[in-house]
Amino acid sequence: MIEVAVPVPVFNTYTYGVPKDLADDVVPGVRVLIPFGKRKLAGYVLGSQTVKPAVRIMDILEVIDPCPLFPDTMVPFFRWMARYYIHPIGEVISEALPSGINPAEMTEFTCNDSGREVCEENKVSGREKSILSALFPGPMRKDALCRALSCEIPVRMIRKMEQNGWIRCEKKMVKGRTRVLTERYACLLSTAIPESGLSAVKQDILDFLAKNSPVPVSDLKQVVKTAATHIRHLEKIGLVRIIEKPVYRDPFGEKVLPDTPPELTLEQKLVVRNVSRAMGEGFCAYLLAGVTGSGKTEVYMRLADEALKRDKSVLVLVPEIALISEVERRFRARFGECVAVLHSGLSAGERHDQWLRIASGAAPIAIGARSAVFAPLMDPGIIIVDEEHDTSYKQENRLRYNARDMAVVRAKLAGAVVLLGSATPSIQSVHNVLGKKYIELNLTKRIHSRALPEVEVVDLRKYKAKRGVDRFITPELHQAATEALGRGEQILLFLNRRGFATYPVCAQCGQPLKCRHCDITLTLHKKANIYKCHMCGYFKAATSLCENCGSPSIKQLGLGTEKIEAAAQKLFPQARIARLDRDSTAKKGALIKTLKSLRNREIDILVGTQMVAKGHDFPNITVVGIICADSSLSFPDFRAGELTFQVLAQVAGRAGRGERPGRVILQTYSPDHFAIESAKKQDFMCFFNQEIGFRRALSYPPFSRLAQVRISGRDKTKTARGATEAGLFCHRSQKQDQEFKLIEILGPIEAPITKIAGSYRWQILVKAPGADILRRFLTEALFKNGFSQKKGGVLVDVDIDPFYLM
Ligand code: ADP
Ligand code: ZN
Ligand code: ZN
Predict the structure, then answer these.
(1) Collapsing DSSP states into helix, strand and coil, what is residue 547?
(2) Which of 222, 505, 548, 696 has CB 3.0 to 4.6 Å from 511, enough for a Cys bridge?
(3) Ligand 1 pocket check: which of 297, 302, 444 to mutate, most ligand atoms within 8 Å of Cβ?
């Protein structure tokens, strides 16, 4: 008997029997075809089942995959997630697997001569005949074959045909952009000069190699033009060896060359020693707080190396960004083929390849964004989460998990070490340090003792009387920018809103222009010449009249990156200005192009949203202007302060990463707010110490656990009624258990944004002292007792540890 998880909205798993002839093929991690009610479904085998259920058990029909899709060591992790997020386990597993993954379908079949014979002699069944004859013209992959025959082909049948020698099966990797290129390297074997002596040129080459071995032959040619011929001779007499190494390219198309590890600083050494000692000794969690540019990535790489030495694998999570990250590039330079990457920039085929390389153990280091937390590593020794505070670790649809938190859980279940790194650690993680759940490690100094940029706060209230956009490029910022431009340095202007005007209102009647489907105002995009909704994408012509009074005169209030770009161009007519936000990078390749010109100093001023805040390293940027630091402070979200602090400190960290010191002009209406003050000092403990008091007073996380129950639907009245009903169920189950008195139920209330894309939105916030009681309560209230999560077009779903409260 086996336990099977079924990808349908049910919370339990099912028991099935296995017919004798399939027994060998059934292992944890493969999919099997099962009878499920009146349907046939593909389910995931979790393991064997010893307890016989009361009901009559059915047999599985087929085994779908020839090899497991995930190692059985991951099953406890899936179970944990399903329980914690109150999510069907089958759906957790399908979320974990890259879409379209299907090893079976990557198998290619070729018809052998004997297959052709039996077919022509009619010694086969009708089904076998159709398969064989489909293969006559040439080899075919399983997915294509299934499509051609428009049916599934059972593994059993394939095995039989293979055993009879009728067909040949070969696993094929898809060839994509990840094709490995190689480059020739020269390695020094010996410096012993032969008796016959050496020419001066050859001696030069040896001297160069003594310092730089191994070195790409192409680099040698830059030192000695005729190196290629000399090298061949040196190889012949046994002083040098030529090897081929794979080369990778970064998104700019440039080679990622193997690097040599630098000597660690004292601080780095301590961190590496501490963590490596714990590796292999069971679960242990670390928070690595290190200022920007303090050498965190180098620490990650040393620890990865330590894990490999212990025959363990390594998982590295990085925030989702449009490009492959700097972290990935550097791991490639250090570890070459050992690295597999999983991120949204890959095609389905490439992702599949990478997945199999990890599952087979060919790549012991997996690097990727959020979903890489599911990478099928057998035995991780260390799990690293870079920029652990980043909100992109939270998934906001289907399974609403937080990959940072799940990395900790996975490490715990695997007895591995987990290392969370950031320059601006989250309140949650610092709290865990103080609660002795995590061990804190620090990197307090920048490499090469580079100073952190100096931050000047400019009070925007001083310039309230000024009109228009001049109010936002203050004399202070103007002067700093002028000076930097004069020195040939680059400037970054940061604003968290895209578009030109974010608040267009009618000059006649004062009504703002709103989206037809959402409860928010439209944004004027001048380049595209439209008003656009940032929630649902609805747009209308920039020439539109006021919908209320028909007036054509609209005041373009509210500040967006396009407006800043236009203003900067007016103030600095000579400067080359570019903009980096989701609009300017919508076209494929546009982001890389902009970053490349920035790096090549073809851009003097870059205006951008938080897209510019993440991970990029541009040494010539010396001035960062934060146009309006408080734009996100007023969000109705208890994390607004934390998010504001983090983005400000990260943007500020973009300045002065090169030789020259950096300067940050931080403009704000609330210079006294502690989030702004701490960002000025770039001191996360200063922020933490104030913020934590406020969280405690209102018993928000980390002092409680939150869940948000979201009720949405297209019919206004029905949705409101659905919300009331969900509220009733919550209040009713609160009375059922003494312990539930500790639960606080806020709502139901209309969501701050009452309508998105035509859907009306309500919410109930549930606050509990712990995760266990929260889960028990929600299960009682919403998943039992006959409450329906989907009724009359009203959908109820639950977000555990929510991030987005609007
Ligand atoms: P962080 O990840 O903390 O921002 P990085 O790891 O990117 O910092 O390090 C910043 C720069 O310093 C990088 O260019 C890196 O190559 C370099 N670096 C890191 N550690 C050392 C070291 N021990 N000696 C010399 N350079 C180092
Ligand atoms: Zn009007
Ligand atoms: Zn809209």
Answers:
(1) coil
(2) 548
(3) 297
